[in-house]
Design goal:
- This protein is an alpha+beta fold.
- It contains 12 helices and 10 strands.
- It folds into 3 domains: 46 residues, Cytochrome C Oxidase, Chain J (Irregular), CATH 4.10.91.20; 249 residues, Beta Barrel (Catalase HpII,  Chain A, domain 1); 55 residues, no CATH class.
- Strands 1, 2, 3, 4, 5, 6, 7, 8, 9 and 10 form a 10-stranded antiparallel beta sheet that branches.
- Helix 2 runs antiparallel to helix 3.
- The longest helix is centred in the last third of the chain and has 17 residues.
Amino acid sequence: MSENNLTTAGGHPVSENQHSLTAGARGPVLTQDSHLIEKLAHFNRERVPERVVHAKGSGAYGTFTVTHDITKYTRAKVFRKVGKKTDVFLRFSTVVGEKGSADTERDPRGFAVKFYTEDGIWDVVGNNTPVFFERDPLKFPDFIHSQKRDPKTGYKNPRRMWDYWSKAPEALHQMTILFSDRGIPDGYRFMNGYGSHTFGLWNDAGERFWVKFHFKSDQGIKCLPGEEAAKIAGEDPDYAGRDLFEAIERKEFPKWNLKIQIMPEKEAETFAFNPFDLTKVWPHQDYPLIDVGVLELNRNPENYFAEVEQAAFSPSNLPPGISASPDKMLQARMFAYPDAQRYRIGTNYQALPVNRPSNGVINYQRDGSLRFDGNLAEQDNYEPNGFGGPVQDPSAKEPPLRISGDADRYDAHEGNDDYSQAGALYSILSEDEKDRLTTTIAGTMQTIPRELAMKNIAHFKKCDLDYGNRIEKKL
């Protein structure tokens, strides 16, 4: 049989791929047409469930190169020496929109980087904003529901969004970014990326430092005016993905400069606010940016589904030298992300080429859906054992994290200042930027009840009196 001949998934030659098997020229289709049944059954299952958030995305491969020595903060091999290169895969996405949504909608953008390090996968799963709408993960599903479609009508309703926000002032900082010019990036190349959460670094001496990751666009920041974004959405809804793909094909490789903020472990206990609060940024005057390296994207995927749609990220992928922090949202995401991928793609999603670590995997996990790698053949699957199977590596042990306090459901909002940082961001905007920001917010409030609008305006006035007054006047 020629290598160019069509076969079924079982490898059987296909004699006819244009006409179904029927009882007579006009007769009904026969279920014994196994090629037809297989073709239709596979077609019905071609789409894995889309991500609940970050459903539509684009991605590319590249290289991370260390340019500055940070080994005094971390033992992670990805930062071992200046000049060291590590392969990466970066997936960009919109957050709330579904798979068919436009790339130019006003929405945060996902910025997820997969580093294929010597000590396993390191995933920095962040956004193009340094903060988020929530600080407590128990509120996250409700927040997303308020941004999605009305369960009765099936369409998005601004009333639901503003009703939720009227009772969630912790979102004001992120809202100010979202409704500002930066709420609609001009493609993926012209925006920053952030780890957003506070993470930990630890060095060979067992010292821990808290860290924030910043990916600064080497292309600069470019944003789209709302009118232009709406026009592009109708003409080219895949605008951002197309721009990224075609730039790489032209060998105009986009770059981001990785920088970090470092906080010594003890300082977190006495800092002015909770440094693990995802709605807050660390002041740069207290913790200036430190240069680390350069990330360059230089290779497009060969197949969108296999490499972009099946790319699976989790902030729980942390190689030795990089650790989690007490950030409540991070703690929840470390469970939720891999759990979502096991449901969406399959139990063994990490064995797929785009997700597989470069250093190989040795463990006792067997069976389950999507097992296509030989299932480790005859190797037995329990430990401890007497057959010389893989054992633990004490050298990878993270230094102990000091924790104290009673187990309780603490109100992280009580006494928390949800207004100052949003107000400070508003105060540094130009007059034109303030005008566009408040016009955009007022525009989204046009159809909601006056009483609900005034509740939200009261929050904006607490950020900055001029901020709220401008919105009120424009309504």
